[in-house]
Amino acid sequence: MARVRLNTALAQYKGSPTALAKASGVDFYAARRFLKYGAKSRGTNAYQLCAYFGINDEQNAHFGTAEITALHRLIAEVWDGTRPHAELLAKLIESTRAYAVNDRLNSDPTESPS
Fold first, then answer.
1. Are 87 and 95 in contact (CB under 8 A)?
2. How many angstroms separate the CA atoms of 88 and 61, rounded?
């Protein structure tokens, strides 16, 4: 996953937050935060840092705009526009964190759980 590789690159980086900010194009505070805490999000700064460190993961949906666009479209279609519904959708998505995609793809739907 790109986040793991980005965190490895950040941990091995020997420069200052100022140097990282200038070289990568992220602002100083973002560079300092990434160096101190690692990559936690998938925002613009993370993309810029991945580009700077030469990290590209074609299988990561966060780099494949078709997948993330489809996910955004689906959320927009089902969301009723209210804060409580947004919180519910976020909790539902978060609840899937424990499931690995490989487990879902490789499992036989006719097989009963053991």
1. no
2. 23
- pTM summary value: 0.51
**In angstroms, rounded to a whole number, what is the distance separating the alpha carbons of residues 84 and 81?**
9
Three-state SS for the chain is CHHHHHHHHHHHCCCCHHHHHHHHCCCHHHHHHHHHHCCCCCCHHHHHHHHHHCCCCCCCCCCCHHHHHHHHHHHHHHCCCCHHHHHHHHHHHHCCCCCCHHHHHHCCCCCCCC
Tokens standing for residue 60:
């990561």
- Give buried/exposed letters for 26-59 (b at 16+ CB in 10 A, else e): beeebbbbbbeeebeebeebbbbbbebbebebee
Write out pLDDT tens, residues 46-60: 888 988 988 876 545
